[in-house]
Design brief:
Layout lengths: L4 E4 L6 H12 L2 E4 H11 L2 H12 L5 H13 L5 E4 L5 H13 L6 E6 L2 H9 L1 E4 L5 E3 L19 E2 L6 H15 L1 H9 L2 E5 L4 H16 L1
Helix pairs in contact: 1-9, 2-3, 4-5
Bound molecules: BIS(adenosine)-5'-pentaphosphate.
């Protein structure tokens, strides 16, 4: 059975950062609904224009849209997925379960990244990413080695996200607590929830995630 895992946690918990490590170290495929929606908005499609305003406010996009995006990816085949930022509601979690069954696959581990709210504000306000390869940086905890240039691909296209401001972050956190945090109980009850300390350093978090996967939990 292939390794399929969910990275669950509030905005800024480090889901994207750890997903990139898992791609590099284990060859898994990242399915980030946030990235898919940002791609849709920059392509200027009608759906992209509709979701842009919702994302900038920090609200969740409709279940129908994000489930459709994930369904499309899963139908393309492949195995060993990292679900990053999906599911985010109970309806999305139920839909994912059905989709995985249809594909003859299942979710191994759900990694809950625990970080306190105060840390999230400083993580989000210092974040920037490479527009070319997607590497994630932080002004203080993970600056580029050469100022203005990506360590991985050398691109100078370093960007900050439109929703990485204090106002949207408040809404994103509220959405998380109201709609996404119930998934912690949902996956606990299913028996595949694995909390890790997301406040630890990036390498230590990666080690804790690896320990879960290597214990055969996924
Ligand atoms: P999305 O793109 O999924 O954003 P998010 O969940 O808010 O998560 P982030 O990408 O902000 O944080 P992250 O946990 O990946 O942290 P990162 O690794 O970057 O969603 C954006 C929007 O799209 C949503 O608001 C919604 O509108 C929509 N959307 C997406 N999916 C949806 C869905 N399923 N349903 C409905 N709507 C959906 O790290 C953050 C910073 O911290 C970085 O600078 C990093 O360098 C630093 N950092 C990471 N780990 C550590 C560490 N251990 N120590 C110190 N610094 C660290």
């Amino acid at each position: 059975m292939a390794t399929n895992i969910i990275l669950l946690g509030p905005p800024g918990a480090g889901k994207g950062t750890q997903a990139r490590r898992l791609i590099e170290e284990r060859g898994l495929v990242q399915l980030s609904t946030g990235d898919m929606l940002r791609e849709a908005r920059s392509s200027g499609t009608e759906m992209g224009q509709r979701v842009a305003k919702v994302m900038d406010r920090g609200e969740l996009v409709t279940d129908e849209i994000v489930i459709g995006l994930i369904k499309e990816k899963l139908e393309q085949g492949g195995k060993g997925f990292i679900f990053d930022g999906f599911p985010r509601t109970l309806a999305q979690a139920d839909a994912l379960e059905d989709l995985m069954k249809e594909e003859g696959q299942e979710i191994g581990a759900v990694i809950e990244m625990r970080v306190d709210d105060a840390a999230l504000v400083s993580r989000i306000s210092g974040r920037f990413t490479c527009g070319n390869c997607g590497e994630v940086y932080h002004d203080v905890t993970k600056p580029t080695k050469v100022e203005g240039s990506c360590d991985v691909c050398g691109s100078t296209d370093l960007r900050r996200r439109a929703d990485d401001n204090e106002e949207s972050l408040k809404t994103r956190l509220m959405e998380y607590y109201k709609k996404t945090s119930p998934l912690i109980g949902y996956y606990y009850a299913k028996g595949n929830l694995h909390p890790v300390d997301g406040l630890a350093e990036i390498d230590a978090v990666a080690g804790a995630v690896a320990a879960v996967l290597d214990e055969g939990k996924a």
